[in-house]
Each structure stands twice: as structure tokens, then as C-alpha cells.
Amino acid sequence: MARELRVFISSTMKEELKDERAAVADLIAELSTPAVQLRPWVFERDAPASDRPVREVYLQALRESQLYLGIFALTLGKWTHDEFTLSQSLDIPRHLYVKQIASDQPEQPSPELVNFLASVQTVTEGVTLKYFPDGGRLWSAVKASVMTWIDETYPYFPGLSSAIYAERPEELRRPERLIGRDDLMAEVTQHLDDRRRVLLHGFSGIGKSSLAATLAGQWIAADKGHVLWLQVGSESTEFITEAIAKAFNKQQEIAGQRSEDRILSVQKMLRDSQVSLVVIDDAWNKEAIADIIRAIPPTIAVMITSRLRKEIGFFVDEMHEVTELTLDKALEALSHYSRMDLSANEHAKELCELVGKHPYALEIAGKTLRVDPDLTVEKLIERIKNAPAETLRMAAQPGRENISKLITVSLNGLSSADRRAFMAIGALFAPIVTPELVALYLGTAEATVEASLNRLVERGLARIHQNGTTYYSVHDLAYAHAQFSALETDKRSALDACLAYAQKYIGVEALSHNAIKPVLDGIVNAALWALFHRESAKADAIVDAIWDDSRVLLYQASYAQAQDLFTTALDAATSRQDAPAEARYHRMVGTVIRLRGQPNEAAPILELAVAQAKALSLQREQAYGLLELALAYNSQGKASVALKTQEDALAVMRVIGDFSELSGQPRLLANMGVSYMSMGDFEAARMALTESLELGRRFNQELVIAADLAELGRVEIYLGHPQQAVAWLTESQVMFERVDFKRDIVKGLGNLGRASIDLGDLPKALDYCEQSVALAEANGSTALINFNSGHLALALLLSGDLERANTVIERAYQQNVAYNNAHIAMLKGIIALRRGDKAEAESAFARATENAEQHLTGENVNIIALEAIGIAYAGLAVLRDAPDVAASLRYLGRLMDITDRAAGIRTSYTRLVRIIGDTLSKNDLFEPIYGL
Q: What is the pTM of this model?
């Protein structure tokens, strides 16, 4: 959600500045970003009707503000002085704008105002003072100051909440060469070797990230372990932990966890990995950093980069400021980037000083000299000095204002088309773009844009990346420069481009997702911007494209991002009293909360969505809400309630004739099949899934067909028809591989292995199961590692390889998947029996029965738990001289009743019961169970 900030506008309540106050208030409201929503407060417009004294009203408003903005002309005024004094005591940033009065004017500034401004000029922190000749210049100055304040206080550069698990140095984005940091690198390396927590702080573009990436690459090259690189920006703990989980391919594991549990899960991920250094790059949110630091075990070194020394320094052992380069190293950097020897060039020395010996500025300057053969160092200096200053958006650090001028000079050496490509990035909603997205914005050929972006790369104004799709990024200083020139009309054109891009790539194919993935954050931010600027229809259309129609947010497991977007959209719908949109976004918020593993919190929201849709006669929305609500009920163990809800949804869908792939009748029927399985009615499940499959084939819906075939394969396994199961599963695997749905591929291999076990084809079963476990581990799916390890252990056990079966079981235990632990413990007990360890066997069987009973409560039938408890009780019956025979018969009989009555228990589990009896020579106990 956007952070709401108040900007208090202060000036004497006279007519002389009335127009200026109104114009500035309107401007402030327009400067809202996806991260920050600004609320201007002006006394004559925003003071509420109240019986309280006037002074109390405006001072209370100031106490609730995050920025003080004062406009002065001729007088100071007692109220204005009060407001400034309070803002000073509250340590609120203070931006002052003074109208220039010509000396020949009859009215001149009052002595009180002159003295006040003289005192302000001596303040070195917290105050900026600017003069303006007219309203237009005031508008530009306020925009520059406020946008800089947002960037430096509440920065938001989308795409920074990401993580890279690096095993090789080349996986990190290291600079082509790092100059002038040898002593600092040696000192920081020693701290990291000692497992200290180190902060690298300094001005933007000074080289903090480059230094950290170089050190991290050296760390890996020296065989000190792997590196987890976190780009965090101003994101929350929730976003960052989700990014970490993605790096380990374990996002599903933390989906339903609360904040503290997420911290513990991240701790375990790090402990179980080979990570020995964590880099936290571009840290701004001190609360989130506090949480992430707690998640990092003390045996792992930590390196943080941030502009915030005081706030982030609290969490570290050592702090190092990354400063400007020395003059000789600045000359070395300039020579390196320009491909010229400038070490003795006096003009080059002047250029280095002019840009503050700033590494990023030196890169731009050097590369600009390299690509422009007619440009000399002297000419570059002259052009920087003569560049216009009034559009600058840089703070007052030495040399920084010249960095913006340098960017302008470098851009001026390009064609107008190239400059437009650069400025387009500032209009778009993220510093990461694809050539196609920029081409949509500019209305230009993609090849032309790509050529322009490559010329920006040559000048150091952009970086090129390859990851399935070619995309480009710009440094935050360059991005700030481009953003400043973006008008609201540009933003609206950029919004249209993002919408067109998202709609072009609607679909669940890997190609579509690869095209959207690099710019997904920018597209989401375009939707947020649209909501802030009352473009709700376009925001809704973007949501349709990336959620309802392509599920790109879902398949990226970007649940925190989705919830943030949908909650913002819900708030906007509520504020404009748009009841249909409220119903829609209540459904979406509830859906995401369900996907995050919180069905108890999701169900009431989805119930509200359904009630709203029904009251408004929104049949399609009602059906979709019922569909999602049923899934929440199923997760709560309310199988019959879920099924009744799905039947209600199906009745509505059949009236309106909705056959859409992702939310229509085919998906609903497939979900009904799963509900029937949850209740143990596999024949009904088969019927529902078969109808869904027929609709999928009728409308050529590949995703529906593949999913239905996979679920039908599971049904046939439970019904004791492994040959048919293999046929369905094999067909579904081909389709899932075509769209590269890795999770479904892994599940399918595990089920193929299970069906092959039932067929008695143990070599093929072992092959399938080993593939499934290897892929599950490669993709970091805890649940599938656990589940498929159970299948593999069973195949190994039946093959007689007890040692390896036990090793696989121990690996499965480490994943700690509650609903499958009974099955794992049951297999552990049988392995212990075969190895002659009766005490271990009894302990494992007791654990299996205890865990299984927890998952046989409520209406849902957990078939895995039922199998496990029946066989575990069979083992306990033998080990304890038959006191639990009745329990064993009860559960195994229930299993036989639920599955195919003719076939009895599935072949492999019948064999497990025989193993128990044969091992302990108690076969007579199990004759009633076999029924053979």
C-alpha cells in the first residue's frame, strides 16, 4: 500500500500568495507515486469546521505532517512563525520559497521576514531555501524539492525486492572494473572473515553496490561459500522474505506464514544452505532490516549498503563511508572509461573536481568522451558549466548539481530519438524496461528503440541484461533525471503503454511470462498510479491482464505484491463508492489471502464479496467469488460446505454460460473433482473431472486439459487402476512440459512413480521417483520433496534397498510437511522393522498414528493419512501383541471402502501389511485384512 504523507503549506493568509498556495497544493497532490500518496494541507481549504481555537487547529495539522512547505513574499506573520517554530521542534524537513521582489517596487519585505530569512540561512540541516521570480518558477522549484525529498526519504525503485542465490562470481552484477577501493576492500574483507556485520554508506552513485558486488564475487572465488544478494529498497519484511524464499525456490513454504514464522523459515533456509555471506543492497526500511538481520544466523557474514548511516548503522558492528575518489584514482577511472591516458591532463583534473570525483559521473563522462570523437575534455567542461540549472533535481552535496548537468550534456550528444528513449524510461513506472515497452510508449519501431537503448548503454546511461528476455535498467541518479521531466500527460501515455503491453501478453505460456517478468513491477506500479489518478478503468484492465487472464502474478508467486495492489484498488473503489468494483476486489484480496495459506482470514472476505455480488446481481462475479470461497472452505476441512458452494457456483455459471479457461465452468468442475476426492468419493470425482476435461477439449483449453488429466490420474491411483492412471498422467506430462510448468511436472512424475509401484514395475517406479525428487530439490519445493521422497522410499523399500530407503526418509523428515508426516513415519516404522530395530519401529508407528489422527478430523478425508494410520496400527498390533488389531482393521477397512471395493487395498499397501506380518511371523493377525 502507498504510504500517505501530509505536506503542510504555510504562508501568511493574505491575497498576495493565494494563487501560489492553490497552485502548489494542486501540484503536491499530482506528485503522488506508487510508494507515496501526498496530501497537501492548506488552512483556508482543509481546516475542518471546529469549535477549537484556530491556532490549535493548524498546529495539530502540522503535527500530523511529514513535510513543512513555507511560501513567503513581504511579511512573516505570527501564525507562520508559530508553524515554522513547531516544525523545527518536531524535526520535520522544511522547504522555504521566497518570492523575489524587485528593488524598485514600493512594497519591500518586512524587517521581521528579512531577519527570519537571515537566521534560516545559517541552519545547515533540515532546511532548504529557494527564491522564485514568478509562479512558473515556484512550480518548478517545488516539484524539484518535493520529488528529491520523496526519493531520499521514501524511495521506491520497483524491482529491488529481489534476491539472487549466487554460487559463481559471474552471477553477481559486478562492475567491469573497480578503481580506488583497495584499502577499503581489504578492511571490509577482514571484517567479513570475522563474521562481522558491515555497513557501506555514502551518497547515491558513489559505488557502494559496485564495491559490495566486487567483494561478494571475491568471496565466492576464494571458496568461502555462496552469497545471497538481496536488493531491498524500501520494501517491507513481507516482500523481502518472499524474495528470499523465491531465491531458494521455497515461496510456497512461507506463503501462509505470519511475520515471525517467516523469519524462522528464512533462518532455516540459510542454515540449510551453503550461504556464508548475505549482502543487503540499498537498504532504506529500518524496520524491515531489523527483521532480516534477525533471520540471518550469526555464522553468516553480513554486508549492507545504504545511504542511511544513522538509521541502518544501529544494526551493524562496523561502518565504512564510501567517499568520492582521490584525484589520482578519479583520473584513473576517467582514463579507463574514456580509453585515453588522462593522468597528466590538467583539464581532466578540473573535470574530476567539477563532478565531485564521483565514480558514476566519471563513468558517464569517460564513456561520453569515448563515443564522441569531436568532444574534448575542455569542451565537456564548458558544456557542463553552461548547462541549464533550473531543472536540476539534485540535492546540495558538492558536485551533485553537476552530475545532472553532465547527464544533460551526454544526452545532448545523442539524436532526438535516443534522447526520447531515455526520457521515456522516466515516464514509465520503473527503471527497468524492455525495448518493446518503450516502443509502445513512443509509438516507434522496436528495432529503432533497441538501437537507441544500446547507445545509452555506450554512454553509461543504461545497462543491458539478458534473462529469457532482453531488458535494460538505469541507475537511480539517471532515473531521477529522466523522471523530473515527465509531465502528467507523459505518465498517462506511459499508463496506456503498460496496459497495451500487459494485454498483448495475456496467456499462461512461458513466452508470455518471460516477456512480462522483467517489467512486472513497473506494470503493477502503472496500475497503482492509475488508481491514485482516478483512472480506475485502466487499473482494472491491467489487473485483468496480469491476474485474471494470464495469472502472471500468481505463477510468479508474487502474493505480497498482488495483495498490496488489490487492497489499494479496494480502498480506491470504496472511496469512490463503486460497489461493483468493491465486490470484485474483495474477491481478489480474499483469493490472495487464501493462496498465502490463510483460509480462516480469507473466508469472511470472500463471503462478503459473494454477498455484495449477489445483492448487485453480478452473476459472473458471484460465481467467481463462490469458486474461490469453496477453495477456502476446502482448506478449512469443510468438504461438504465447499461442495455445496461449488454447486451454487455451477448453477450460476450454467445460466450465464461461462466457459472461460481460468475461472469458468471447466475450472469449477475440476475443483469439484478435488472436493469429491477430499470427501473420499472418487467415482464422483472422476465424473466431475471427466466433464471438465470434455469442456477443455471442446474449447481447446490446454491448461484445463493438462490439469484434468493429472487429477484423473490421481483418481485412478486411488481407485486401484494404475494402468489407466499412467495413461492419463503421461498425456498430462507432455502438456505441462510444453508450457514449462515445473511444479506440475514434478507432481506428475511423483504420481507416475506411485502408479508404477502399484503396477509392480519397480525399476520404472524408481526412475520416475528419483526424477521427481531431483526436480523438486532443484525447484526448492519443500512439500514436493517431502511427498515424492515418500514415494521413492516406498519403491526402495519394496525393492529391498533398506539403507537408501532410510536415507531418503530422513531427507523427507527434514522438510517437515505436516499433512504427509504420518506417511513418512509409517514408512520409517516398516524400514526399522526390516532392519530389526523394534524400538525404533514402535516409536515411528506411534508417531504416524498420532500425526494421522490430527489429519482425519473434520469432513475431509485425507487418504494419505488414512493409509498411514491403518498400516501403522497394523505394525503396532504385532509389536504390542495385538491390542490394536481392531484399530488396524477399522482404518484399513475404511480405506478399502473408500477406494475400489473389488480390488481392496492398493497392491503396494497390501504388500506393506504383508511385510509387517512376515517380518514378525504374525500373518494370522492380518488374514481379515487381506481378504485374499
A: 0.75
